[in-house]
């Protein structure tokens, strides 16, 4: 009977690769817990109603301000944009954004929703709303009361933030298992071929 030898180097490589994949899977499980805790913190911020200043250009991007109400003066509108958005009745259309110059720096303001991309006639002034994620700066303000001629945007909901880490963990565990199974089948085929030759 042909001795079933296990090649050392290929086995070490495959087992090491599978171990890395398993480690990545557990890392993603940890990230899933972190994201769930972050969403819970955002939901608590939303319920608390605690007012926060809108962070400046050099302000924190760690999310401490997100889902808190804020208010400031838009001294000058320096840019406008219309992006895909939904209103509070879940209809698709355009979310209108104004980039404002403030005493603390630049702030993007979600003015409201409309069916058309035409920019509303809004030249700045008092802004009062909720700090939400998005935009090039990672946060912007969604106004509580839409600008004239616009409808309310869909209400911000922290639970809508993506948390795909559990699925990613499952993928890494599946990849590790697949690699081991394929390698085991390759070994069995090698042993079978050698036993026929012997």
Summarize the structure in words.
The chain is α+β, with helices and mostly antiparallel strands. The chain folds into two domains: 8-35 and 163-197; 51-157, Beta Barrel (OB fold (Dihydrolipoamide Acetyltransferase, E2P)). 37% of the residues lie in helices and 26% in strands. It is built from two helices and six strands; from the N terminus they run αββββββα. The protein has helices at 8-48, 165-197, and strands at residues 69-74, 76-86, 92-102, 105-114, 125-133, 139-143. Strands 1-5-6-4-3-2 form a six-stranded mixed beta sheet, with no helix packed on it. β3 (92-102) and β4 (105-114) form a beta hairpin. α1 (8-48) packs antiparallel against α2 (165-197). The protein is elongated, with a radius of gyration of 27 Å. It starts with 7 loop residues before the first helix and ends with a helix. The model has no long low-confidence stretch (mean pLDDT 87).
Describe what is shown at a glance.
This protein is of the alpha+beta class. 37% of the residues lie in helices and 26% in strands. It has two domains: 8-35 and 163-197; 51-157, OB fold (Dihydrolipoamide Acetyltransferase, E2P) (Beta Barrel), CATH 2.40.50.
């Amino acid at each position: 009977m042909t001795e079933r030898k296990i090649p050392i180097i290929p086995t070490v490589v495959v087992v090491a690769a599978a171990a890395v994949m398993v480690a990545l899977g557990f890392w993603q499980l940890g990230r899933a817990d972190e994201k769930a805790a972050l969403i819970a913190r955002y939901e608590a911020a939303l319920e608390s109603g605690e007012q926060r200043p809108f962070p400046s250009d050099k302000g924190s991007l760690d999310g401490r301000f997100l889902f808190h109400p804020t208010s400031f003066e838009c001294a000058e509108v320096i840019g406008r944009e219309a992006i895909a958005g939904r209103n509070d009745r879940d209809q698709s259309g355009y979310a209108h954004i104004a980039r404002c110059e403030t005493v603390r720096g630049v702030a993007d303001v979600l003015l409201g929703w409309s069916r058309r991309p035409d920019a509303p006639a809004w030249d700045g002034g008092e802004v009062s709303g909720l700090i939400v994620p998005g935009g090039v700066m990672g946060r912007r303000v969604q106004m509580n009361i839409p600008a004239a001629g616009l409808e309310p945007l869909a209400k911000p909901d922290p639970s809508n933030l993506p948390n795909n880490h559990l699925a990613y963990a499952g993928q890494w565990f599946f990849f590790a298992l697949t690699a081991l199974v394929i390698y085991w089948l390759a070994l069995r085929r090698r042993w079978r071929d050698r036993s026929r030759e012997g």
